[in-house]
C-alpha cells in the first residue's frame, strides 16, 4: 500500500486549523480504506447520500475490489473548507497494478455532527505532469524496427532475452511487451524480467519494436551457453529498419549429452514457461502446482505428462510442490497424479488451526508410488524433516543451490545448503544435487541457477528425470564442470576391496570469472587450483586417498556475484559457481559414516521429535504416536552411527 501525503490530526474542532487536520485525517482514512478494500472503514467515511464517479454509496463500496487502487498521492491537494463543507483535490489514484495510469479525483465532504463525511467523489482535473507516464511508446512517433535472431554457427532461429535503450538510457520494449513491468509476488509473472535493474523482454527469433528515430543499444542474452551481446544501431526518419543478430555459443553441452533444467518455477502458464525456457536455452522447466491457505496455483494446467506447449528441445512439465512451514518443502517431478494435500500446517502453507499431518515422508511415499522423483526444495529451508527423510530413503535429490550463496556455512535460518548436503552424504545418504530458482517474481531469471543432467540416449523428459535419479548431474550458475575418477563418471559408484588411492581429473570452462577449482572428499578440500592467469578453462588432476567408504566431487567458485534472483539474491549474493554431484567410493561394501555429522543430525532429529510430541497438531493421539515413531526411527539411525555402532 502506498499513501503519499502529509497528515496532522487533533481531537477538537474549535479552530480552523483543527478543521484542516480533521479533513486531512478523513482523506488519509479514505486512501487507506480504498487501497485495503476495507468495506467497514469506507462505510464509516461515506455520507448517506454519497455519489462517487457515477456510483451510489452501496455500489461504490461493493465494487472497491473490482479495480483495486494500489497507490494514492495527495501531496498536491488543495483544501477548501468553508461553512461545514470541504473540497480536497487533486488526489491522484492509480487503479490496478498493471495499468498504472494515474487519475485525478477530488473529495467533497460535509461536517455531520463532529465527523467529516465524504458525500461526493468527482473528476479532479489534470494529473500533475511529474506523475504522468513518460517515454511510453504510445506517446511517440514510432518506426517499426524488425529484428531477426539466429545462431551464428547453425543459422537456426533462436529465442532470447533483449533490452533496448535509447541514448538517454530509457528502455523501449518490443511490441506487445510492457514498458514498466510489475515487481510484486505473483504479479503478472512471465514474459519479461528485471535483472540488475534492467528490464528485459523474452522474444521469439523474429520480433518488432516500435522506436522513435535515434540511436540505440540492445543487449541480447540467451541462457548460459551463449555469449551475451551488446550492439548499437540507429533508427532513421525515413521508415522501417531491419537488424539481423547472430548469437554465438561459447559451449554446446548437448553435444556431450548434458541437458539443462530448472526444477522449481511458479506461476508461469505453459506457453509463457516455454517462451522463457527458449529464451534462456533451458531444456526442461518444471512449473509447480502448489497451495497455501486458500491459494491454489497451476492445477488447471496439470496433465501428468509434458505439456503440449513443449518442443523437442524445450520441455514444460507441470509438477507439484508439497509444503509445510516447519517440516519442509519437496518438489514432485514427473508426477502422474497430484498428491493431496499440497500444503498443510501453519501459518502460511495450510490454514490456522490445520493439522500437521501427514508427514513429508508420507507424501514422498505416495509420490514414489506414483512414479515421481522427490526432491527437497530450496534445501535446507524449511527442514524439520530433512534428516529424517534422508536417512529413511524418502528423498531422491536436493535443490542445493537456489537462493543467495550456497557455500555460506551458517545463515539466520541455520546451516547453509552445501554444508548440510555434505553432512547427509557423509552419513550414508546418496542424493544428487540440483539447481533451481523458485521463480515467483519478475525479478528472477528462470534457469539462472540450473541443473545439468547427463542423458543416456535421446533427450526426453523421461530420460532427463532418469539422469537426475541416477545422480548424473551438476549444478551451475554459469561454469561447465566435469569430474572423472579412475574412468568413472558423476553418479557412479567405484567398488574397492580395500583402502587405496584413485586418480581424478576435474575440468571447468567458463565465460565468467572463476577463481578456483577444488576437489572435495567427504566435505573437505583435498586439492585446489587457483586461476591466477585469468584463463577461461581450468583442469586439476591428482590422486585421492580413500581410507573408508567416501564420496568425491568437484566445485568451481568465483567471487563474482550475479543479480539473477532479485529479492532472493541474499546478503552475500549468488556467486558464479558450479558443483558436481558425487562419485561414490565403496570400500569392502561398508557404508559411509561420520560420527560427528551423525551426532549433529541426531540432535536435529531430536528437535523434530520434540516438536511432534509437544507442539504439532494431529487429528488423533494415534496419529501423533505414529509420526513420533517414524521420526524416532530416524533418530535411532543417527544415534547408532554417532556411537560408532
TrEMBL record:
Matches recorded under NCBIfam families = CehA_McbA_metalo
Q: Protein name, please?
A: Uncharacterized protein
Q: Which organism is it from?
A: Sandarakinorhabdus cyanobacteriorum
Q: Lineage in the entry? A: Bacteria, Pseudomonadati, Pseudomonadota, Alphaproteobacteria, Sphingomonadales
Amino acid at each position: 500500500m502506498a499513501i503519499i501525503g502529509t497528515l496532522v490530526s487533533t481531537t477538537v474542532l474549535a479552530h480552523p486549523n483543527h478543521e484542516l487536520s480533521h479533513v486531512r485525517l478523513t482523506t488519509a482514512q479514505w486512501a487507506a480504506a480504498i487501497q485495503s478494500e476495507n468495506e467497514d472503514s469506507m462505510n464509516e467515511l461515506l455520507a448517506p447520500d454519497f455519489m462517487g464517479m457515477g456510483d451510489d454509496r452501496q455500489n461504490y463500496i461493493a465494487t472497491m475490489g473490482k479495480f483495486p487502487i494500489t497507490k494514492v498521492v495527495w501531496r498536491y491537494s488543495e483544501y477548501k473548507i468553508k461553512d461545514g463543507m470541504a473540497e480536497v483535490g487533486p488526489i491522484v489514484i492509480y487503479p490496478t497494478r498493471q495499468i498504472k495510469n494515474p487519475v485525478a479525483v477530488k473529495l467533497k465532504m460535509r461536517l455531520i455532527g463532529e465527523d467529516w463525511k465524504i458525500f461526493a467523489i468527482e473528476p479532479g482535473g489534470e494529473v500533475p505532469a511529474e506523475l504522468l507516464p513518460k517515454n511510453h511508446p504510445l506517446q511517440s512517433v514510432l518506426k517499426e524496427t524488425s529484428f531477426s535472431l539466429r545462431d551464428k554457427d547453425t543459422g537456426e532461429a533462436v529465442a532470447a532475452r533483449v533490452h533496448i535503450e535509447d541514448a538517454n538510457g530509457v528502455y523501449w520494449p518490443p511490441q506487445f511487451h510492457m514498458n514498466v513491468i510489475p515487481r510484486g509476488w505473483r504479479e503478472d509473472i512471465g514474459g519479461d524480467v528485471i535483472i540488475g535493474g534492467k528490464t528485459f523482454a523474452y522474444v521469439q527469433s523474429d520480433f518488432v519494436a516500435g522506436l522513435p528515430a535515434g540511436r540505440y543499444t540492445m543487449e541480447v542474452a540467451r541462457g548460459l551457453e551463449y555469449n551475451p551481446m551488446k550492439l548499437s544501431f540507429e533508427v532513421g526518419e525515413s521508415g522501417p529498419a531491419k537488424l539481423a543478430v547472430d548469437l554465438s555459443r561459447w559451449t554446446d553441452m548437448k553435444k556431450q549429452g548434458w541437458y539443462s533444467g530448472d526444477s522449481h518455477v511458479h506461476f508461469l502458464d505453459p506457453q509463457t514457461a516455454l517462451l522463457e525456457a527458449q529464451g534462456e536455452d533451458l531444456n526442461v522447466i518444471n512449473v509447480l502446482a502448489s497451495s497455501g491457505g486458500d491459494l491454489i496455483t497451476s492445477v488447471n494446467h496439470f496433465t501428468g505428462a509434458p505439456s503440449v506447449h513443449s518442443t523437442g528441445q524445450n520441455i514444460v512439465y507441470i509438477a507439484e510442490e508439497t509444503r509445510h512451514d516447519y517440516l519442509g518443502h519437496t518438489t514432485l517431478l514427473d508426477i502422474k497424479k497430484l498428491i493431496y494435500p499440497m500444503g498443510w500446517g501453519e501459518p502460511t502453507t495450510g490454514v490456522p488451526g490445520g493439522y500437521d499431518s501427514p508427514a513429508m515422508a508420507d507424501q514422498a511415499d505416495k509420490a514414489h508410488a506414483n512414479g515421481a522423483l522427490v526432491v527437497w526444495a530450496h534445501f535446507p529451508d524449511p527442514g524439520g524433516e530433512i534428516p529424517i527423510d534422508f536417512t529413511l530413503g524418502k528423498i531422491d535429490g536436493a535443490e542445493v543451490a537456489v537462493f543467495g550463496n550456497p557455500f555460506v556455512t551458517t545463515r539466520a535460518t541455520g546451516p547453509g545448503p552445501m554444508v548440510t548436503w555434505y553432512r547427509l552424504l557423509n552419513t550414508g545418504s546418496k542424493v544428487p544435487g540440483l539447481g533451481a530458482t523458485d521463480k515467483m517474481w519478475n525479478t528472477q531469471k528462470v534457469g539462472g541457477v540450473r541443473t545439468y543432467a547427463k542423458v543416456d540416449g535421446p533427450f526426453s523428459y523421461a530420460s532427463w528425470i532418469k539422469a537426475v535419479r541416477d545422480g548424473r548431474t551438476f549444478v551451475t550458475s554459469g561454469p561447465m564442470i566435469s569430474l572423472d575418477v579412475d574412468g568413472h563418471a558423476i553418479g557412479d559408484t567405484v567398488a574397492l576391496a580395500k583402502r587405496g588411492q584413485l586418480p581424478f581429473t576435474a575440468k571447468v570452462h567458463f565465460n565468467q570469472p572463476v577463481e578456483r577449482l577444488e576437489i572435495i572428499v567427504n566435505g573437505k578440500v583435498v586439492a585446489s587450483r587457483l586461476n591466477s592467469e585469468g584463463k577461461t578453462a581450468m583442469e586439476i588432476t591428482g590422486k585421492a586417498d580413500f581410507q573408508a567408504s567416501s564420496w568425491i566431487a568437484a566445485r568451481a567458485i568465483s567471487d563474482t556475484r550475479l543479480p539473477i534472483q532479485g529479492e532472493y539474491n541474499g546478503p552475500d549474493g549468488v556467486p558464479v559457481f558450479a558443483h558436481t554431484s558425487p562419485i561414490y567410493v565403496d570400500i569392502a561394501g561398508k557404508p559411509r559414516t561420520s560420527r560427528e555429522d551423525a551426532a549433529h543430525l541426531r540432535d536435529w532429529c531430536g528437535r523434530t521429535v520434540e516438536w511432534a510430541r509437544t507442539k504439532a497438531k494431529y487429528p488423533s493421539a494415534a496419529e501423533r504416536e505414529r509420526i513420533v515413531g517414524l521420526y524416532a526411527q530416524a533418530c535411532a539411525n543417527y544415534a547408532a552411527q554417532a556411537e560408532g555402532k
